[in-house]
Design a protein that fits this description.
By secondary structure, the chain is of the alpha/beta class. The protein has a domain at 441-537: 2-Layer Sandwich (GMP Synthetase, Chain A, domain 3). The protein is built from 17 helices and 27 strands. A nine-stranded mixed β-sheet has the order 2-1-11-10-12-13-14-15-16, sandwiched between helices. It has a five-stranded parallel β-sheet with strand order 4-3-5-6-7. Helix 1 packs across helix 2 (48-64). The N and C termini lie far apart (76 Å). Belongs to the ATP-dependent AMP-binding enzyme family. One of its GO terms (biological process) is fatty acid metabolic process.
Length: 543
């Protein structure tokens, strides 16, 4: 190659290239800010130097037990320090993190352990019962480690040793993994609402970049205090273990999402940031409004189902600064954000809330997010009306589905990741989700967005949570069926709810049935519409 050309022969040399990995964030922070507090749990705390040392010990223990590059280490745990340590210690040993949803039943956990080919299983003693049943249903020869919790009884018989005993085994000459930045760092299983869950493979490069994207897009400051209200098993806590390490922040660990307990921790530790699904935001808003004391500003990142504009307005009035993001497990969690324009500050609160409900534009680390016609693979007009499918391209798209090449080819066909979310596109590239492709209601040949109806339902003063699904109808094929969870101490009449919708929507879009009940939710607060769809289908067709 000619000297001085734009592509020198030594590109990729060890002097000018290093594989991207979020493990580097911990190394830097432990070196520079080692004396700063890294983790708080109950009455205990660890500095970044102490936390890093525990992560190295976990890596050394795994390596000492023969865990090799690419092998899976599963963990079933609440948001406790050991789960944070696993986010670093497992990949330090060359292993792949497999964080398991704590709400799964034993059969589902056993399936994951088998499918992931798990070598080591870290079990929070709080989940000893379900883990024990899963292990008994699993044919693999597992090394099971008990993460101690005195409040949850004694060490289970299925565990070979305790977590602290395991850390004490750490070898001191831990070899540096021969890392390729496209090596897997995590294997996350989707919810599996239509069969066995799919294992999503994520790599070091994507985790590194999306952690930076979180920080840039949220304006996350150095030394932030972050409350772990978001489950760590949910897409590796949206990459926030690595993001908080990047910013030398404080991780405040907590079991569960009791809103009053969270508010106590927020006040006690001067929490500045937390993440959660819209249902968690609603719980915090309702609990905070019941307390009259002043509180410091709190930044909340929410994702998942589009939060209704009424909730966003109420949160803002409560003093919570809401950042609305969007993403999926296949794109490392949130990777799109509703970027705010200064001129929007002059708009009314309702207008601001309507704009804030948009999923927005890609993080700076996202190559492309677009709304595309899945049949022609051409972008739809940015007119806020034409519906297409949200698709992603770039470094924060998954490697693929583990041991499922057919599903991988389908999801990545045409050079994009197909999200399955239907949306419209606005000028400036702003995406607004209208529905999941499976949640669109087709009534008499007309497409009806369940989200549009839910947006109206949330404006009713008695509605705490709402979900709309298709129900069979003799004349129209299907019509909307609304399932409503009411605010505590408030009642609602189904006929009055329907009349309320008819005052705000075209009549063909309004629910023909309303059921009042507690809504089924996942561990991350998402409403499980598939259960409601099955319930609606079982009813006799509405005439």
């Amino acid at each position: 190659m000619t000297k001085g050309s734009g592509n020198p022969e030594n590109i990729g040399h060890q002097a000018n290239y290093s594989p991207l990995t979020p493990l580097s964030f911990l190394q830097r922070t432990a070196q520079v800010f080692g004396h700063h507090v890294a983790v708080i749990f109950e009455e205990r705390s660890w500095t970044w130097a102490q936390f890093a040392n525990r992560c190295y010990n976990l890596a050394g223990a795994l390596a000492g037990r023969g865990v090799k590059s690419g092998e899976k280490v599963s963990i079933l745990a609440d948001n406790i320090p050991a789960a944070l340590e696993a986010s670093f210690g497992i990949p330090m040993a060359g292993g792949v993190i497999n964080a398991i949803n704590t709400r799964l039943d034993p059969d589902a956990i056993a399936f994951i352990l088998e499918h992931a080919e798990t070598r080591v299983f870290l079990v929070d003693r709080h989940y000893a019962k379900v883990a024990g049943e899963a292990i008994s249903n699993c044919t693999r020869n597992l090394l099971v480690i008990d993460i101690e919790d005195a409040a949850s009884g004694s060490k289970p018989t299925f565990a070979q040793l305790s977590y602290e005993e395991f850390l004490s085994e750490a070898i001191t000459d831990l070899p540096a993994p021969n890392l390729n930045e496209l090596d897997p760092i995590a294997l996350n299983y989707t919810s599996g609402t239509t069969g066995d869950p799919k294992g999503v493979l994520l790599h070091h490069r994507g985790a590194y970049l999306n952690a930076i994207g979180n920080s840039l897009s949220w304006g996350l400051p150095r030394f932030c205090v972050y409350l772990w209200s978001l489950p760590l098993f949910h897409c590796n806590g949206w990459c926030f273990p690595w993001t908080i390490a990047l910013q030398a922040g404080v991780n405040v660990c907590v079991r569960g999402v009791d809103p009053n307990a969270l508010l106590d921790l927020i006040e006690k530790h001067k929490v500045t940031h937390l993440c959660g699904a819209p249902i968690v935001v609603r719980m915090l808003v309702d609990a905070a409004n019941a307390i009259t004391t002043e509180r410091a500003p709190l930044s909340i990142m929410t994702a998942g189902a589009a939060p209704p504009s009424s909730l966003l307005a109420k949160a803002s009035a409560t003093g919570f600064d809401i950042t609305h993001t969007y993403g999926l497990t296949e794109v490392y969690g949130p990777c799109a954000v509703c970027e705010w324009h200064p001129e929007w500050d002059a708009l009314s609160q309702d207008e601001q809330a309507t704009l804030m409900a948009r999923q927005g534009v890609g993080y700076p680390v996202v190559e492309e997010i677009a709304v595309i016609n899945p049949e022609t693979m051409l972008p739809v007009p940015q007119d806020g009306v034409t519906i297409g499918e949200v698709m992603f391209r770039g470094n924060v798209v998954m490697t693929g589905y583990y041991k499922n090449p057919e599903a991988t080819r389908e999801a990545l066909s045409g050079g994009y990741f197909h999200s399955g979310d239907l949306a419209v596109w606005y000028p400036g590239g702003y995406v607004e989700i209208k529905d999941r492709s499976k949640d669109i209601i087709i009534s008499g040949g007309e497409n009806i967005s369940s989200i549009e109806i839910e947006e109206v339902l949330y404006k009713h003063p008695a509605v705490s949570a709402a979900a709309v699904v298709a129900a069979p109808h003799e004349k129209w094929g299907e019509t909307p069926h609304a399932f409503i969870e009411t605010v505590a101490n408030k009642s609602a009449d189904p006929d009055e709810i329907i009349a309320f919708c008819r005052d705000h929507l075209a009549h063909f879009k309004c629910p023909t049935r309303v059921t009042l009940q507690e809504l089924p939710k996942t561990a991350t607060g998402k409403i499980q519409k598939y259960e409601l769809r099955e319930k609606a289908k079982a009813l006799s067709p509405f005439s």
